[in-house]
Design a protein that fits this description.
The complex is a heterodimer of chains A (345) and B (351). In chain A, 74% of the residues lie in helices and 6% in strands. With 345 residues, chain A is mostly helical. In chain A, a hairpin with a 5-residue loop joins strand 2 (166-175) and strand 3. The longest helix of chain A is centred in the last third of the chain and has 30 residues, at 315-344. Chain B has 351 residues and is an alpha/beta fold. In chain B, strand 9, helix 9 (280-288) and strand 10 (291-296) form a beta-alpha-beta unit. In chain B, 53% of the residues are buried. The termini of chain B are far apart. In chain B, helix 2 runs parallel beside helix 10 (302-313), helix 3 (87-100) runs parallel beside helix 4 and helix 5 runs parallel beside helix 6. Chain B is 45% helix and 20% strand. The chains are: A mainly alpha (345), B alpha/beta (351).
Chain lengths: 345, 351
């Protein structure tokens, strides 16, 4: 009887919600598994906040990536943009005596400029988004090195105060073995990331623009027939993604406090992986921002589990993530196939 | 009904896979770890070691030395985390150590800058930090207990002194030395020290330092950079590689470009010198003369770090900076010893 009930829930949900549910369940199973099996650090709330602190920038960029992927595109330049933003802001703050506000504008400016150019090339000149953003990635990495070759730390005092600002979470701290109370905290970036997640969740769910992303990603032809401006929608998806990469870049910069050409290497791939784990499909039309948030959390929980296990070789992280991705996709496709069958019968 | 069964079993199978994947990796190592954390907390001293990566043989030897110094037989439990060359990973690792309540943190930092906030967190949690290999720039030197490692600038100066001495013995004029420097990862202490050692000597002696380009301490990048340099300059006769792996790559590039590698500069050879002396291939190259001279960089820090931790345990204050002794290797017997700042260093030809 119980199975029957499950089945009816399955078939009632649309694809997006179904995948979201799977992601959230898997994340909780994994985290609880880590707490039970591994104990130690995982029992403490700060372990979870650390995951948030370290991945605030990834959450922001992955959300942007999800929007592009939902509307049927892809953007692999985000990691490069993050590196470029942190280097430009670092140089501006230290060598040009800049202000915090100015550096935020620089970050936004780089993001928006990227979005305008890439969005135009993809949407109006109809060039493959992969190629456009590949070029964008190389350009950003190259420009980062031109702006400044050597990595360096920002000395600007105002910035460092902002960087060290912490929002203590009450009642979540813990007393360690030496009897010292360690408070639980999150960084500013986490607040920014969560605000962005909520905002874009609302946009995707309840606005005309949000729905047109799904429509364009699902099927361009039918979207066109429905009277949606396909070109504009694709353009906007890239604009939003790159702007978020700019914001993500600033949050990353705020987290590490330095500029370097090797910052955020491979971040675009983590963003894509998080989106996929979160239930966004590469083919477009399906996806959810909350899912992406859980995708990032799942990904970094895996990384944390592998790292805490003290496995000597770094490649274990990569192998485990690969296995997890396969399992996620397996579960997704099994469930989707079952749902289709159920609908047919 | 049958179909339903199939569906449920497929889901169960996937879930089982998931669990086994999450669990298998952690089971062996971590169960013992969580035990230590709780029931055997008094027996073992937990040490968290954040290594920056595994980019070279030197690094692997360094990790190996640390792992073998802190074994359970000696009363230690070591949690090792590999930062994969990224500072962000190492910061996360240290934060994880703080949550895992380790008693000591050993850090081999990827860069010199950007450690203030996380070291402050460690101090707030009352965990002493010991630095290995590279140093950090912090506003407050008391953020770490002590440092163990090599004097990289001295290594660079020793190598420069050897080049100068050898050129003199060969009767080469200073302006005939065309040197390229294949640097390590920019910003690392080893790169800064070794680059400074050469750059100062080149300025003082009037050598022609054609170019300084980073090869990131890896063989592949060393090969690429050398190939690019050969296209830019045709008069290179000394290649100064800031580690062995890059030297192996550079030699490969030189030989595929048809250049002969060896100490005989007068007859068109390209003389390669390098650092570390850990890689067996590089030592073989050094014995056969392909690498003319190697300045050793001792990677065996484990026992020394353990001694420091034991001193800290006994409530002593160890020296802030602890240098290790390092040798010079060369198969060329014309230069038996070199002199840096009044101190004589022998060059070993039997190694």
């Amino acid at each position: 009887m119980k199975e029957k009930k499950n089945e009816s829930i399955f078939s009632k949900m649309n694809d997006t919600n179904l995948l979201l549910a799977i992601t959230i369940v898997i994340f909780f199973v994994m985290y609880i598994g880590a707490v039970v099996i591994q104990g130690g650090g995982f029992t403490k709330p700060q372990m979870f906040f650390n995951i948030l602190n370290a991945n605030a920038a990834l959450i922001i960029t992955a959300v942007g990536m999800s929007i592009v992927m939902i509307s049927g595109g892809i953007d692999i330049s985000v990691g490069g943009v993050v590196a470029l933003v942190s280097m430009c802001c670092a140089v501006y703050l230290d060598y040009h005596d800049g202000s915090i506000i100015g550096s935020i504008f620089i970050a936004l400016g780089i993001g928006i400029a990227y979005g305008l150019v890439q969005g135009f090339l993809v949407a109006y000149l109809d060039i493959q988004p992969f190629i456009v953003s590949l070029a964008g990635m190389f350009f950003a990495r190259g420009m980062t090195t031109i702006v400044n070759t050597a990595p360096f730390n920002v000395a600007d005092e105002e910035f460092n105060v902002l960087k060290l600002t912490r929002i203590n979470v009450p009642f979540m701290g813990s007393v360690n073995k030496k009897g010292v109370y360690v408070p639980a905290y999150v960084e500013i970036g986490v607040i920014v990331a969560l605000l962005i997640v909520v905002l874009l969740f609302v946009v995707l769910r309840w606005t005309r623009l949000g729905r047109s992303f799904y429509a364009v990603g699902g099927n361009k032809q039918s979207a066109l027939m429905m009277g949606i401006n396909v070109q504009k929608t694709r353009f906007l998806s890239h604009l939003i993604c790159s702007t978020l990469a700019g914001i993500g870049g600033y949050v990353y910069f705020l987290h590490v406090g330095s500029g370097s050409a090797s910052h955020a290497m491979g971040m675009e791939m983590n963003a894509i992986a998080s989106s996929i784990i979160g239930g966004t499909m590469l083919t477009g039309g399906v996806g959810n921002i909350i899912g992406t948030l859980f995708g990032v959390l799942s990904l970094s929980t895996i990384q944390n589990i592998v790292a805490s296990a003290g496995l000597d070789q770094a490649w274990w992280t990569g192998i485990t993530i690969a296995a997890m991705l396969c399992i996620f996709l397996l579960i997704q496709s099994v469930v989707m196939a079952q749902k289709k069958k159920a609908l047919k019968s | 009904m049958n179909r339903k069964l199939k569906r449920v079993s497929a889901l169960l199978f996937a879930a089982a896979l998931l669990c086994s994947c999450g669990g298998k990796n952690t089971a062996d190592d971590t169960e013992s770890f969580s035990d230590e954390n709780y029931s055997q907390a008094d027996e073992y001293t937990t040490v968290g070691f954040s290594q920056l990566g595994a980019e070279s043989d030197w690094r692997s030897a360094n990790t190996e030395s640390m792992l073998s110094a802190f074994t359970e037989e000696d009363g230690y439990s070591l949690i090792y985390m590999n930062g994969q060359q990224k500072q962000a990973n190492q910061i996360t690792a240290i934060r994880t150590f703080i949550q895992q309540e380790v008693e000591y943190i050993v850090l081999a930092p990827a860069t010199e800058d950007g450690w203030d906030s996380v070291l402050m967190e460690a101090r707030e949690a009352g965990i002493p930090v010991i630095l290995v290999d590279r140093r950090v720039n912090t506003s407050d030197k008391n953020l770490y207990s002590c440092w163990v490692g090599s004097d990289f600038e001295l290594e660079g100066r020793k190598m420069a002194a050897w080049i100068g001495e050898y050129a003199k013995k060969e009767g080469l004029l200073p302006e005939d030395l065309h040197i390229v420097n294949i640097q390590g990862s920019i910003g690392s202490t080893a790169q800064i020290g070794r680059t400074r050692g050469l750059a100062n000597a080149a300025r003082d002696n009037g050598w022609d330092l054609c170019a300084e380009i980073s090869g990131d301490f890896t063989e592949t990048k060393g090969r690429e950079v050398m190939a690019a340099l050969l296209k830019r300059f045709d008069n290179i006769n000394i290649v100064y590689c800031e580690n062995d792996n890059m030297a192996i790559g550079a030699i490969d590039a030189l030989e595929s470009a048809g250049r002969k590698v060896g100490p005989d500069i007068k007859n068109g050879d390209v003389c390669v010198v390098s650092f570390d002396g850990v890689n067996e291939t590089a030592l073989d190259y050094c014995r056969s003369g392909k690498i003319s001279c190697i300045a050793e960089c001792n990677p065996l820090h484990g026992p020394r770090v353990r001694a420091l931790i034991e001193a800290l345990k006994d409530g002593k204050t160890p020296d802030k900076f602890n240098y290790v002794d390092e040798k010079m290797f060369s198969c060329i017997t014309q230069v038996p010893e070199i002199e840096v700042a009044g101190q004589k260093y022998p060059v070993e030809s039997d190694f």
